[in-house]
């Protein structure tokens, strides 16, 4: 069988199962008395093991099998949960993620897991042996139901106790031979200890088996006694109730499958929880297909603009009506396609709890990560880029923000610090706030570092507000770390974070209260492919300015323009802002005489500037196209778009114009 056709499904489902294991492990660590989490983890690990074995990824299958042993011991109360157990399971998940990532990148998914396998085996080997020597077996509801069904069909049920000789050296081998005899005679439905534990010799010298068979007690006794080193065999008939309920015949594996296709009624309270079949239908779609769909729709948007332009020129009522209807329908289609590309920020957040757990452990700190609004959605192109900046901010909060437990207690705080990650929609933007209750930012320390690095001079330092001082940490190469660590403080600073976010058309601001904590607020556009823009004219050329960067437009008279150090400035609502003549900046031939200035007021974080153009054309939705490899790094130009009349308009990067 050609497994390549199933590879993509395997990779996606493996990632989902690993994420579930990750999430459930984090929850189980907080409440180790709730074995429901362990059952969830076991189910995902078991499924992953089966898929890996089928696909031929032996290292994956081997490691998940050893994880199963540990999880099985935990859920059967045979192993106490402690830090070493949890750390080994988390370490196993890390290794599994590495292997799955290797497979997704075209590798063979192989990894040396010998040491990790030995660690898991050592943990299971430490579980108490005495509890496996019990001479009784539990007849739970499922076993009773199965026995009742087999009795209805005329089978016998026996409880068989096998005692091996005390001198038996190869207990697991003898047990295997006995099980072989029993399975030829009927079906083994339960054993104590479990079959897995018997295979690993986790019993003293006896074990119990429930067997359903047509054979007689005498024949079974004789067959088992033929196996070497068997001291004695006791066989007793199991009394069986004849009444049966069909709904009790659901095996755990079937129940698990049923649970995966059920949903909780939203109208029910937690006390009244009932699961009903879900009518939701989903299908996996390769992201490349969505990208192709988006590209085709972008072409449709361009043609729509062209038709609207022609309709205006011809002034034909029937054409106007048709174009208006097409515009409305294509607008609805645009909404649907954009929504299809929306991905919850949860896909980025998923790795953060594990990361914070490990970092806090490495640093000897106690930190709780609170996540709010994980279902907030962003375009996939934004999601792909936002992960690394958030990782950097989180590591910064863990290392620089949250204090050591002793220091927190000394300052009257809870020894456990809190980092809160919140996402929410507002208008056409998504905001992500990262807040900690740590030490906050030391204003004087930041100011002194900036002076030492030559980022600002002494005269400027005297005029800066607290907020302006905090923003200095975004300067290139800025760092307040006393020493380089593996977590942060490598001298890279947060300038990479700021640059990445601004390249996405977003912004980041800081607020801090020394001694009480800090908050980083990130503003991002919902999508990057199709944006609303203001078209402006400069001589014979047209340019587009993203509406997300625009505060307002204004007409400024020449007498209102002032000059400060050779720079044109205006008084805009009580603040002095610089003017940038785009015609001069882009060396556009000057063919229009101005008797006034048409100004577009744009922002970049807390900073603003006025861009001088010849005239405003109007607002329009445009398709953002890259300039390609032939025109890389053109200053203040983020791309281009094709207008309704077929002409190309360059899209101005307002962030690059504001220093």
What report would you give on this structure?
The protein has 659 residues and is α+β, with helices and mostly antiparallel strands. The protein has 22 helices and 24 strands. The strands form 6 sheets. Strands 16-20-21-19-18-17 form a 6-stranded mixed β-sheet. Strands 8-10-11-13-12 form a 5-stranded mixed β-sheet, with helices on one face. Strands 22-14-15-24-23 form a 5-stranded mixed β-sheet. Strand 18 and strand 19 (575-581) form a beta hairpin. The longest helix has 28 residues, at 287-314. The two termini are 61 Å apart.
Please provide the count of β strands.
Answer: 24
Strand order of the largest sheet: 16-20-21-19-18-17
Largest sheet: 6 strands, mixed
The class by helix and strand makeup works out as alpha+beta
- Mean pLDDT across all amino acids: 82
Quaternary arrangement of the chains shown?
single chain
- Helical content band: 40-55%
Determine the N-to-C terminus distance.
61 Å
The shape, in one word, is: elongated
């Amino acid at each position: 069988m050609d497994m390549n056709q199933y590879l993509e499904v395997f990779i996606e489902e493996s990632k989902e199962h690993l994420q579930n294991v990750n999430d459930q492990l984090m929850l189980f660590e907080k409440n180790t008395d709730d074995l429901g989490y362990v059952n969830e983890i076991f189910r995902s690990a078991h499924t992953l093991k089966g898929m890996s074995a089928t696909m031929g990824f032996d290292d994956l299958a081997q490691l998940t099998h050893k994880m199963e042993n540990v999880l099985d011991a935990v859920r059967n109360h045979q192993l106490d949960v402690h830090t070493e157990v949890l750390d080994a399971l988390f370490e196993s998940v890390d290794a599994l993620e590495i292997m799955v990532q290797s497979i997704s990148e075209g590798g063979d998914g192989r990894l040396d897991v010998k040491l990790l396998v030995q660690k898991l085996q050592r943990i299971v080997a430490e579980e108490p042996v005495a509890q496996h020597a019990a001479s009784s077996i539990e007849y739970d509801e499922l076993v009773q139901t199965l026995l009742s069904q087999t009795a209805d069909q005329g089978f016998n049920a026996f409880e068989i106790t096998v005692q091996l000789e005390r001198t038996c050296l190869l207990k697991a081998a003898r047990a295997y031979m006995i099980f072989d005899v029993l399975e030829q005679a009927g079906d083994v439905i339960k054993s104590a200890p479990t079959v897995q534990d018997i295979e690993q010799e986790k019993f003293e010298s006896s074990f119990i088996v429930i067997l359903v068979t047509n054979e007689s007690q005498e024949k079974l006794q004789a067959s088992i006694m033929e196996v070497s080193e068997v001291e004695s065999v006791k066989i007793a008939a199991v009394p069986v109730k004849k009444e049966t309920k069909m709904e009790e015949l659901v095996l755990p594996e079937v129940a698990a499958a049923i649970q995966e296709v059920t949903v909780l009624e939203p109208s029910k309270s937690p006390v009244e929880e009932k699961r009903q079949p879900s009518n939701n239908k989903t299908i996996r779609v390769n992201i490349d297909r969505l990208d192709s769909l988006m590209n085709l729709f972008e072409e449709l948007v361009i043609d729509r603009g062209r038709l609207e332009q022609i309709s205006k020129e011809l002034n034909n009522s029937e054409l106007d009506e048709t174009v208006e209807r097409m515009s409305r329908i294509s607008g609805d289609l645009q909404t649907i396609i954009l929504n299809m590309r929306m991905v919850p920020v949860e896909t980025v957040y998923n790795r953060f709890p594990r990361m914070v757990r490990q970092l806090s452990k490495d640093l000897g700190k106690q930190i709780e990560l609170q996540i709010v609004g994980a279902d907030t959605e962003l375009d996939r192109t934004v999601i792909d880029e936002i992960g690394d900046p958030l990782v950097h901010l989180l590591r910064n909060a863990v290392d620089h923000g949250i204090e050591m437990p002793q220091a927190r207690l000394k300052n009257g705080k809870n020894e456990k610090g809190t980092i809160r990650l919140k996402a929410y929609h507002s208008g056409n933007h998504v905001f992500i706030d990262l807040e900690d209750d740590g030490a906050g930012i030391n204003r004087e320390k930041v100011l002194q570092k900036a002076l030492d690095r030559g980022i600002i001079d002494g005269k400027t330092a005297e005029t800066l507000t607290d907020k302006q001082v905090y923003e200095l940490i975004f300067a290139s190469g800025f760092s307040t770390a006393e020493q380089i660590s593996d977590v942060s403080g490598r001298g890279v600073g947060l300038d990479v974070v700021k640059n990445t976010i601004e390249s996405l058309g977003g912004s980041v601001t800081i607020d801090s209260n020394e001694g009480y904590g800090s908050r980083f607020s990130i503003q991002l556009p919902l999508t990057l492919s199709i944006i609303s823009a203001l078209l402006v004219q400069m001589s014979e050329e047209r340019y587009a300015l993203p509406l997300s960067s625009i505060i307002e437009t204004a007409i400024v008279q020449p007498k209102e323009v002032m000059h400060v150090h050779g720079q044109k400035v205006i008084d805009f609502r009580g603040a002095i802002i610089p003017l940038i003549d785009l015609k001069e900046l882009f060396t556009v031939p000057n063919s229009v005489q101005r008797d006034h200035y048409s100004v577009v007021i744009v922002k970049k974080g807390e900073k603003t500037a006025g861009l001088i153009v010849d005239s405003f054309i109007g607002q329009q939705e445009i398709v953002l196209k890259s300039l390609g490899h032939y025109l890389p790094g053109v200053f203040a130009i983020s791309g281009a778009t094709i207008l309704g009349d077929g002409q190309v308009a360059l899209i101005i990067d307002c962030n690059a114009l504001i220093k």
